[in-house]
Amino acid sequence: MGLDLPRGATLGIGGESGGGKSTLAGLIAGVFAGHAGTIRLDGAPLAGLARGRPADLRRRVQMVFPDPLASLNPQHGVEALIARLLRLFLGLSRAAARDPLRALLAELELDPGIMTRFPRRLSGGQQQRVAIARAFASKPDLLICDESTSTLDVTVLALVLDTMQRLRRDRGTGYVVIAHDLPMVARMSDTVIVLHGGRITDIAAPAALIAGRCSPYARALLAAFRANAGHVRHLSERTAQHVD
User: Fold this and answer.
1) For residue 56, what is the domain's CATH number?
2) Residue 155 and residue 199: Cα distance in Å, rounded?
3) How far, in Å, are 9, 38, 213 from residue 2 at the CA level?
4) Which segments within the chain are labelled E, that is strand?
């Protein structure tokens, strides 16, 4: 079974833990190697580990990991973390990188004042947006987001998702968005695939998936998520009543 992702489009991947979502993301990004079949970007094979790929392919494919704090070197400030990518892939000196870095932070609605701060001194939402800014620094054609919003609260999540959608429109970057949350995946995506046990159970348009025109497995995932969301709302309402 083959699947094409047009330039600037978003592919959503959903399913339970252990279904193969992160494995697929890691293969595309070159985090690890070894797979059957072929993955290509504009005809160029995305094979093996990222460090063994040509520099331009490494630049064009970037990844935002599930835990932003773990993916950001705690020994470096925000400026050093992002400027390294600008130097490595775009050949900019530290001085020349400063203005593009400020502009990139502004696109992510981050104050330039955080450039001197270290990851542990940032809020969860700021950490995630710095991780996204770092991924965008190399001007990638494809950005892989593996559960990259799972630790955010609802308010920050909405802001980050809206920002990512705006960046996609402005830059024409394609996304692969991976999450357990099928409604969120559908909101972000042009096409959604659902994985179960390493196999694709569904390739669907978001509206069809949300409407239940999908496999029994995907419908069960949607029902479980909706039931859990309803339970959380009920608890929130009870807590608010108690506080009142």
Assistant:
1) 3.40.50.300
2) 33
3) 16, 9, 21
4) 10-14, 40-41, 44-45, 61-64, 142-146, 174-179, 191-196, 199-204
Inter-residue contact 169 to 185 (CB < 8 Å):
no
Report the Cα 161 to chain-centroid distance in Å: 10
Residue given tokens 């559908």 in the structure block: 186
- Provide the 3-class DSSP secondary structure of residue 12: strand
Number of domains forming the structure of the chain: 1
**Mean local confidence (pLDDT), 114-121:** 92
Range of the structural domain that residue 30 is part of: 10-202
42 is a domain residue: yes
pLDDT (tens digit per residue) in 61-76: 998 887 888 888 889 9
Residues ≥6 apart with Cβ < 8 Å to 240: none
pTM, to two decimals: 0.83
CA 197 to chain centre: 22
DSSP secondary structure letters along 139-189: --SEEEEESTTTTS-HHHHHHHHHHHHHHHHHH--EEEEEES-HHHHHHH-
